[in-house]
C-alpha cells in the first residue's frame, strides 16, 4: 500500500472515530445527573424556574432530536450555540485554543531538542556517571505529578522569592512571557523524562546494531554514523511518545490551567461539563478527537519516514 | 475528578503559607489612613467560564453580582442589617392598603448621558417578569401587577401590587433587579447608571471598567476597576501574594488564619454572611416526627462545628435564619448540645438503631466537612448518620426533591424573603417541606401589617415556631472572607449580597 493511500484510509477511519466519540460524549453527558437548566438554577432550584429555563434553552425537545440537529449542523461545520450564554460554540473554542496552543507549541519546541539531546548524551556515555545522574534525575522527576510540582514551584518562585508571576491571572500570555515560565517547567518536566529515556534506549540499540557496525567498517565518520544513521532509527519509537504528549498538551492540561489560571481548552471543558452545556462539550469532543486522529496519523507518517522498514499497520 | 483536583490544589495555599511563615513574623499590616483617588484595582473572583454574561438580570454568580453592582443600580439595596435602603429610588410611599406604591426616582443618568426615567424602571421590570424568560428576580417581583402600574412622570413610578405587601422595598432590592435603559437587550457593551462604566470584556477572563465621574452618589475614588477570574481559591491567594491582584474574593478560613498576621495580605471578614445548616424534610419519615427533629437539634455541637469546619471564622447559629438581621428573634434562648435528652427523644420516637442518610456535596465550601463532623457528633445517640456525597452541579435541585436530610447553606437576604422563598406552602424552594396553613397565615398577616412593631412581633412568633419545630438545623454563620493587599482601603465588612459587599466605588488604593 502506498503512503498516500494509507493516509487516506486512516483519515476515513478517523472520521468514523470522531463520530463515535461525539456520540459517546453525548450519551455520557445525558447520563450525568441534572441538565443545563438545573446547573444554571444552582442554589435557587425553584422547579417552575427550572422549567422556564429549560423551555428557554430548548431543552424541552427530545434529546435525540437535538442531537440529530446538532449533527446536521456539524456536517456544515456549524458547531451550534452554547445553551447557557447563547454565544456560538466556535467562539468558545477559539477563546480556549489560544492559550492552550501557546502552551502546547512552546512546550513542544523546547521539549524536542532538550529530550533528544539528553537522550543522545546519555546513550553515548552509556554506563558513565553522566548517564547515571541523568537516569536518576529523570526517573525521580517523572514520579512527581504535575500538580505537586506546580504547587512547589509557585510557593517557592512565585510567592516566597517573588521572581516569577505565580499565576497568569489577568495576563496576556504573549505580552508577559514571564508568566509562562512556571507552567512550561511543569508541562516539560515529565515529557522530557519519558522521551529522553526512549531516545536513549533507541540510541543504545542503534549504536549496537549490525548496520552501525557495518557503516563503521565502511569507514564512515563517527559523527556521521551517529547523527545520520543511528539517530533517525533511535527517534522512531520516541515519535509515538511525542505524539501522545502533543495530544495531551493540545487537549488542555486541566490541572496546570487551574493552578496557574490559564483559560485554555481544559478550563473550557471543566466549565462546560459543570454547566451541562452540551453543545460546548460536544464541540470540544470534536476538537479533541480530531486532534488525536491527526496527531497520531502524523506521528505514524513521520515514524515511517525516519525508519521505512517499520511496518505500516492498517 | 473535580474533587481530587480541588483536594490536591488546596495544597498550594498551605505550602505558600508555610513558605511565608519561613519569612519570620511580619508586623501587622497597617491600613491606609486617608482615602486617595486614582489607580486601577484588580479584583479576583471565581467565575463561570466563558458562559459568563454582562446582562445584569441574568446575574447568578458572585462575580456577576459584583460587576452588575459596579455598572448598574437597583431601586433599593440591602443595608448592613439586611433591611432595604433607597438607591435609585429617592423615597417610596405606599397607599394605606399597601397595594399601591409610589416610587420617586433620584436624579441620575445612564453612562451615555440619558436620564434614568420611570419608563426605564418599568421596562426593566417588564423584562425581568417576561414569562418566556427565567430571570432570578422574577419570583421576587411577581406580585407586581404590571399592566396597572404606570409612570406618573419621568421621575415617579406607581406600582400596583396583586396583594398588600409592606415589604415591597425588599423586592426592589432583590438579587438581579437592576434598572437598565428602556429597550436594552444587547449587553455586549452594557450601559448602566452605576459608579463604573464599561470598557471591555473577555468572557471567563476579565472585565475592565472605568470611573463614572457623574455618578449620582459621587464619583468613585478608583480610576479603573478590573475583575479577573481565578476559579481556584489557592490561585486567588497566590495572585494576591504575588502582587498580581489587589483584592481576592472568597478565601477559606484556613488561608485567612495563615495570613492574618502577615504583612502581605489584609484579611477582611464579613460576619453573618452565609448560614450553615442541615435541612430535615418534615413531611416524610423519619423527620416528620418533631421529637426526632428536636433530637437532631440537641445532637449538634455547634461550637465544635464552627471551630472545625469554619476554622473559627464564624458564629454559632440558633436554628434561625438571619442572625442580627432586621426582625431576627434574638430573644430565643441559644440551643446547646444535650446528648442525654437527644437519646431519650430518639428512644421516644422509636428511632433507636435507625440509619439516616445525610446528603451532601461540594456545591458549597465546608458542607462535606460539616456533614462528616455532625455524623461523628451523632455517634452514641442511638441514631447513625451516614454521609453520602452527591453530584455538586445538580445538588440543590436533587436535595429539594429527594432524601430526608441534607446539607444546606444560604447567603444573606431579608428574613421575610427567606420565609417567602423557603417556608410557605407555595414556596419554590421549600427544601424542608415546611407547609402549615397557620404559618402561611402569619406571613400574610406580617406583610400586610404597616405598624413596624406589630409586624416585628409576628415575625418573632413565626421564628419561635421554626425554632421549636422547624426543619432547619442552622448550626452556624460563616464569615465571608476577602483578602486585599495592605494598601487597599475602604473595604466594608457588611454581609455578602448586601449593598456594601464588593462595593468598589468606596474603595481606594493607598
TrEMBL record, chain A:
As for subcellular location, the record says: Cell membrane
Q: Supply the alphabetized keyword list.
A: Cell membrane, Membrane, Transmembrane, Transmembrane helix, Transport
Q: Where are the transmembrane segments?
A: 101-124, 136-161, 173-193, 248-266, 278-299
A Pfam family assignment: BPD_transp_1_N
Quick check: keyword Cell membrane in the entry?
yes
| UniProt cross-references to SUPFAM superfamilies, sorted A to Z | MetI-like (SSF161098)
Q: Quick check: keyword Nucleotide-binding in the entry?
A: no
Gene3D superfamilies assigned: MetI-like (1.10.3720.10)
Q: How does it sit in the membrane?
A: Multi-pass membrane protein
| Domain ABC transmembrane type-1 per the UniProt entry, residue ranges | 97-299
Membership in a protein family: Belongs to the binding-protein-dependent transport system permease family.
Identify this protein by name.
ABC transporter permease
UniProtKB/TrEMBL annotation, chain B:
PROSITE patterns for this protein? PROKAR_LIPOPROTEIN (PS51257), TAT (PS51318)
| Keywords of the record | Signal
Q: Which residues form the signal peptide?
A: 1-21
Q: State one Pfam family annotation.
A: SBP_bac_5
Decide whether keyword Signal is in the record: yes
Residue span(s) of domain Solute-binding protein family: 84-413
| InterPro entries, sorted | Peptide/Ni-bd, SBP_5, SBP_5_dom, TAT_signal
| Record protein name field | ABC transporter substrate-binding protein
* Organism classification: Bacteria, Bacillati, Actinomycetota, Actinomycetes, Pseudonocardiales
Amino acid at each position: 500500500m502506498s503512503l498516500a493511500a494509507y493516509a487516506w484510509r486512516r483519515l476515513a477511519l478517523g472520521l468514523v472515530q470522531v463520530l463515535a466519540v461525539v456520540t459517546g460524549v453525548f450519551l455520557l453527558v445525558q447520563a450525568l445527573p441534572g441538565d443545563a437548566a438545573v446547573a444554571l438554577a444552582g442554589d435557587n432550584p425553584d422547579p417552575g424556574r427550572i422549567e422556564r429555563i429549560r423551555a428557554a434553552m430548548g431543552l424541552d425537545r427530545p434529546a435525540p432530536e437535538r442531537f440529530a440537529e446538532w449533527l446536521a449542523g456539524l456536517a456544515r461545520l456549524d458547531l451550534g450555540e452554547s445553551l447557557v450564554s447563547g454565544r456560538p460554540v466556535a467562539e468558545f473554542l477559539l477563546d480556549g485554543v489560544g492559550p492552550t496552543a501557546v502552551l502546547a507549541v512552546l512546550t513542544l519546541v523546547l521539549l524536542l531538542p532538550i529530550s533528544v539531546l539528553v537522550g543522545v548524551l546519555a546513550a553515548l556515555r552509556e554506563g558513565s556517571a553522566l548517564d547515571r545522574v541523568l537516569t536518576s534525575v529523570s526517573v525521580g522527576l517523572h514520579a512527581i505529578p504535575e500538580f505537586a510540582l506546580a504547587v512547589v514551584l509557585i510557593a517557592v518562585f512565585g510567592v516566597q522569592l517573588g521572581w516569577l508571576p505565580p499565576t497568569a491571572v489577568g495576563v496576556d500570555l504573549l505580552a508577559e512571557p514571564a508568566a509562562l515560565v512556571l507552567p512550561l517547567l511543569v508541562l516539560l518536566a515529565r515529557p522530557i523524562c519519558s522521551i529522553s529515556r526512549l531516545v536513549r534506549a533507541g540510541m543504545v540499540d542503534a549504536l549496537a546494531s549490525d548496520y552501525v557496525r557495518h557503516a563503521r567498517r565502511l569507514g564512515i565518520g563517527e559523527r556521521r554514523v551517529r547523527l545520520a544513521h543511528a539517530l533517525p532509527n533511535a527517534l522512531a519509537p520516541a515519535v509515538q511518545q511525542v505524539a501522545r504528549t502533543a495530544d495531551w498538551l493540545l487537549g488542555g492540561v486541566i490541572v496546570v490551567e487551574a493552578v496557574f489560571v490559564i483559560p485554555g481548552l481544559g478550563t473550557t471543558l471543566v466549565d462546560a461539563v459543570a454547566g451541562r452545556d452540551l453543545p460546548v462539550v460536544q464541540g470540544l469532543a470534536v476538537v479533541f478527537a480530531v486532534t488525536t486522529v491527526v496527531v497520531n496519523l502524523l506521528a505514524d507518517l513521520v515514524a515511517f519516514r525516519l525508519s521505512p522498514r517499520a511496518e505500516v499497520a492498517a | 475528578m473535580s474533587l481530587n483536583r480541588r483536594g490536591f490544589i488546596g495544597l498550594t495555599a498551605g505550602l505558600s503559607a508555610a513558605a511565608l511563615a519561613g519569612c519570620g513574623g511580619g508586623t501587622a499590616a497597617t491600613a491606609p489612613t486617608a482615602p486617595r483617588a486614582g489607580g486601577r484595582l484588580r479584583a479576583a473572583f471565581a467565575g463561570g467560564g466563558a458562559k459568563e454574561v454582562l446582562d445584569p438580570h441574568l446575574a447568578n454568580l458572585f462575580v456577576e453580582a459584583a460587576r452588575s453592582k459596579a455598572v448598574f443600580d437597583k431601586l433599593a439595596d440591602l443595608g448592613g442589617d439586611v433591611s432595604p435602603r433607597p438607591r435609585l429610588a429617592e423615597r417610596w410611599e405606599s397607599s394605606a392598603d399597601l397595594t399601591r406604591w409610589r416610587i420617586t426616582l433620584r436624579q441620575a443618568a445612564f453612562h451615555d448621558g440619558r436620564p434614568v426615567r420611570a419608563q426605564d424602571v418599568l421596562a426593566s421590570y417588564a423584562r425581568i417578569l417576561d414569562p418566556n424568560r427565567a430571570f432570578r428576580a422574577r419570583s421576587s417581583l411577581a406580585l407586581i401587577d404590571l399592566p396597572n402600574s404606570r409612570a406618573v412622570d419621568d421621575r415617579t413610578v406607581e406600582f400596583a401590587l396583586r396583594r398588600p405587601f409592606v415589604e415591597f422595598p425588599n423586592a426592589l432590592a432583590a438579587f438581579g433587579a437592576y434598572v437598565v435603559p428602556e429597550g436594552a437587550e444587547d449587553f455586549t457593551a452594557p450601559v448602566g447608571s452605576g459608579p463604573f462604566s464599561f470598557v471591555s470584556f473577555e468572557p471567563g477572563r476579565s472585565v475592565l471598567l472605568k470611573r463614572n465621574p457623574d455618578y449620582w452618589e459621587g464619583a468613585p475614588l478608583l480610576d479603573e476597576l478590573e475583575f479577573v477570574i481565578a476559579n481556584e481559591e489557592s490561585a486567588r491567594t497566590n495572585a494576591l501574594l504575588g502582587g498580581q491582584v489587589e483584592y481576592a474574593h472568597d478565601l477559606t478560613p484556613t488561608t485567612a488564619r495563615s495570613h492574618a498576621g502577615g504583612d502581605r495580605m489584609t484579611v477582611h471578614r464579613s460576619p453573618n454572611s452565609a448560614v450553615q445548616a442541615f435541612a430535615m424534610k418534615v413531611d416524610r419519615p423519619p423527620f416528620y416526627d418533631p421529637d426526632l427533629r428536636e433530637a437532631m437539634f440537641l445532637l449538634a455541637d455547634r461550637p465544635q462545628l464552627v471551630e472545625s469546619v469554619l476554622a473559627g471564622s464564624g458564629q454559632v447559629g440558633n436554628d434561625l435564619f438571619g442572625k442580627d438581621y432586621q426582625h431576627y428573634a434574638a430573644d430565643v434562648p441559644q440551643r446547646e448540645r444535650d446528648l442525654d435528652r437527644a437519646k431519650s427523644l430518639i428512644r421516644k420516637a422509636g428511632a433507636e438503631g435507625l440509619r439516616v442518610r445525610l446528603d451532601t456535596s461540594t456545591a458549597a465550601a465546608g458542607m462535606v466537612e460539616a456533614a462528616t463532623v455532625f455524623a461523628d457528633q451523632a455517634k452514641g445517640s442511638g441514631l447513625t448518620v451516614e454521609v453520602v456525597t452527591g453530584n455538586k452541579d445538580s445538588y440543590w435541585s436533587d436535595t429539594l426533591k429527594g432524601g430526608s436530610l441534607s446539607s444546606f447553606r444560604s447567603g444573606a437576604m431579608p428574613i421575610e424573603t427567606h420565609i417567602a422563598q423557603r417556608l410557605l406552602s407555595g414556596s419554590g424552594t421549600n427544601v424542608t417541606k415546611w407547609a402549615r396553613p397557620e404559618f402561611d397565615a402569619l406571613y400574610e398577616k406580617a406583610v400586610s401589617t404597616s405598624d413596624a412593631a406589630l409586624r416585628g412581633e409576628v415575625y418573632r412568633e413565626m421564628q419561635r415556631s421554626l425554632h421549636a419545630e422547624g426543619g432547619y438545623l442552622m448550626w452556624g454563620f460563616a464569615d465571608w472572607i476577602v483578602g486585599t493587599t495592605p494598601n487597599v482601603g475602604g473595604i466594608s465588612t457588611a454581609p455578602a449580597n448586601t449593598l456594601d459587599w464588593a462595593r468598589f466605588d468606596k474603595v481606594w488604593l493607598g
